[in-house]
Amino acid sequence: MSDLPALLVVLPILGSLVSLLAGIRWDRSGWYVAAATLSVQVAGAVAFAADGLSGAPGSYAVGDFTIPYGIELLVDGLSATMVVLVAVVALGVLAYARRAGPRSNRFYSTYLLLVTGLTGMSITGDAFNMYVFLEITGLTAYALVASGEGGRSAVAGLKYLLVGTFGASLYLLGVGYAYISTGTLNMADLANELAAVGYASPLVRAAFAFIVVGLFVKVAMFPLHTWQPDAYAGAPDSVSALIASLVSTVSAYALVRIVLTVFTPEFLDAVAFARPLLAATAAVSIVVGSGLAVSQTNIKRMLAYSSVSQFGLVVAALSVTNATALVGLTVHLVGHAVMKGGLFLAAGLVATGVGGRSVADYDGLGSRMPVAAAGFGTLALGMVGVPPAIGFFGKWYIVVGTLEAGAWGLAIVILLSTLLTLAYFARLLERMFFRETPAGAGTGSAADADAAVADGGDGHDAGGDSLADRGVSLGMVAAVLAAALLAVGLGAAVPAYESALAPTVEVLLS
Questions:
Q1: What angle do CA 257, 258, 259 make, to 5 degrees?
Q2: Transmembrane ranges (predicted)?
Q3: What predicted TM-score, i.e. pTM, was given to this entire model?
């Protein structure tokens, strides 16, 4: 196998260093360095996915050191999916951030380090290296959240730091217990050694509990979600979109990888508390997250609580552990990343264009910013699960998987969550498209802003300022539309993706 898996981790590190050094001589050069780096990263990720999805799962030994003593990188359909997702979403948000900011070279250097951490988490086959990349991801995410202007972002970043460090410490403690029991850190070797030690061992069970709860913090499962609403609401809009779409998504992937590769489905069958822990956390997160989202008036906080519910679906699928549910889990991770990231970008676009960050501010948005409203509406319907968007297919497979496993209670909870999701998005759709524009509100459209950016025009809204003057750019609008189109287009690719993912699912369940 080529060195591509290792290069995918190294490339954004090099880009980060170049961005930081370039800032000494050329201020604001960081965006161009990051754009070039992520463009190459996308190409490499696609090539990596061609290997991961085209045949039986494999691995790469870093430095050709013998596994399990060396560091192993995993090459399969699941890791390939995450690597492509990280690269594509990071590039899309970067296009938005060029105008929306922050714009310093330090920001873009940290941005690329976050991509490094997320990519490393996606492909590592070593439990300790998962912790290393988890910490890189965490530290850079804390810094990005705190990069906004004012004390609100700093406080949100500090809260995220404290809670996130607690979660990472629990994970590391669990890995320590597993190492004491087995003397190895390689995931595949851990699976064999843990089975040899015996699933009844208190150390093995403690390792599972600490690792899972630690990752629950990172995924933001209820009641360990308290960092998320403040972090999403307090961060700059581009940062909110990036961490909402990728950080919890890759953390959820890490949870799936550890549970299925290290502890295996046999552990879940043998240990009485394992499946109930996953299922109960999932059910509570789905219901409470949706309920809290319904009660919010701030758009970004509403979307944050929505994520608590949506990741509950992922854990629900993991708890039943059959092929159908695992396909749904993976499809849902991809769909949620694209749609939730797009929704945060759309919310930022609206806030920039008309100054609206609350539900009430969306009255008449369809006439004031029709492109932004159309993108937001498409993504919202996708999150509800309206076909042909990818959101429908993820939920469909998960529900069918729970029914195949006889988990009728989880299936009912998931269907209930769909109604609650419709409740909090329907009120926004009604305000955007069926209410009059409030008196005195701006009536310029995103299309007007695009024209102003493209040709220097001065199309003004009712308040006398063009949306372009307020900071709306063609790149910001294009990023939102790309997310909406991708959410719909990916739905058509699900059947082919299911076939490509089948070898990986078979290995994970064997």
A1: 95
A2: 6-24, 31-50, 70-95, 107-124, 130-148, 160-180, 206-227, 239-260, 272-293, 313-335, 341-359, 371-393, 405-426, 474-497
A3: 0.91
